[in-house]
Every structure is written in structure tokens, then in C-alpha cells.
Structures
1.
Amino acid sequence: MKRTTKWRSLGERVAKLKDGESIVLEPEGDLTEEARQIYNGLNGIRACDLVLRTVKVVGGKIVITRVAAWRPLVLRDDDPKRGRRSGPAIVG
């Protein structure tokens, strides 16, 4: 399924947030259903893959808050003589 410009635009805005920053959206319909659609829609956007975020209904508005960023896993080479990589190591 191809993402619409609406989702791509929102995904880019969320990806640019710093930890603790939020985006507040005015709902267009049912609050709970719209928050669920936003949550699920952001899960399929590549720009948001490494962004840990919350989507909540607060005071009649939808609030998307960046909580943190996932750290990427990097493979390390423990034994160069064997020419194999041992497994993931978190770099950070």
C-alpha cells in the first residue's frame, strides 16, 4: 500500500522531533480511532523506524511525543583470523 502525502509529511515531522518534543494535532473525527490510525500509520513509515514515540489523546487533542531514538545494532569482528563476525554489539 502506497503511503499518502499526509502520512509521509507527518512521518517526516515526527522524525525531526528531538527527545521530549511533541506535535499536537486537532482531531477531525473520533479521537480514539484517529489516534489509532496515526499510531498505525507512523509504524509503516521508514523515517519513523528508529524513533520511539507515544501517541496519546490529551485534552481533546492528539499528542505525538518523541520519547527516544532506538540505537542501531552494529556487528563487530572479535576474531579477525576466523573472518567471521561474532554477533551484534550496541554502539553508543
2.
Amino acid sequence: MLATTFFILLVISGFLILTLPLLKKWFTKIEIFMLFMFTSYFCQNLFYTLSSPYDRITVVTEHFPFWTIRLHYGVVFAVGLLWLMAVYRSKVTLCKKLLATFSWILFGIIVEKTFLFIGVLRSDSISWYPSLDMFFEMFVILVTLFFTEFLFGILKRERVI
């Protein structure tokens, strides 16, 4: 089951990487590259910094779960977050932006619960609190929104875009 999960996530990651050029409608190539690097690094570090050292959630020590989590937070979450930033840059209504935001948060919670259920992640605590994950994911969105605007300002000021 763990190997199957890894290969499914590998295919999904490959597909999501192929969608990055479609983001050129909202971002320049340098923005896409830098935002992907930032979101990938930030999502992985936030998970390992805030989740792994505590009893709340840890990655099972086998190879497939380790690489599954790396792909999930390093590619799937990161590219999904880039698409969420594209929604924020688009001219859609506030209601659709909120729907996209809560969909991304819900997706993260469902995937984490699924990983707990199939054995990719392990929890040594008595219970699992999705409200804590919601807080982390909202924090990720806010920091990424700030970085997206900050990066745009720097690139514009330096006349890169």
C-alpha cells in the first residue's frame, strides 16, 4: 500500500509540474520559479519543524513514506499553493477566492488524515486535531501571499518584470 501511494503521488506530482507553464497567464517565468522554490521549501520545512519533533505526527521511517511526504509537501502542496496564488491574482470574485482557499485547506486535511490511515504518517498522540492543521495551512497561505506580493514588488522595482 505504501509503494502504491508513492507511485500515485509521483504521477500526480509529474502532472502538476507540467501545469506550471500554464501559470504564465498570471506570473512571469522568474516568479513561477521563485514562488515554486519558496513554497516547496516553506511547506516542507513547516511540516518537519512543527509536526515531526512532537508526538503529534511523524513520518514512518521506511523509504516510501519518507519520499511520499517529500513529494506531497515539496511538489503537490507547493504547486497547489501556486495555483491558489494564481486565483488570488485573477479577477474572480471574493467568494470564489474564499472557496479556493478553503478547498486547498480541506484538501490538506483530508490528505493528511488519509496518510495517517494508510500508514504513511504516524501519530503517537491520543487524538488528531484538524484545527491545528487548519491553522498551519492558513499561516502558509498568508506567508505565501505576503511573499508573492513582496517578490512582485522587488522584481518590478529592479525592472526584471
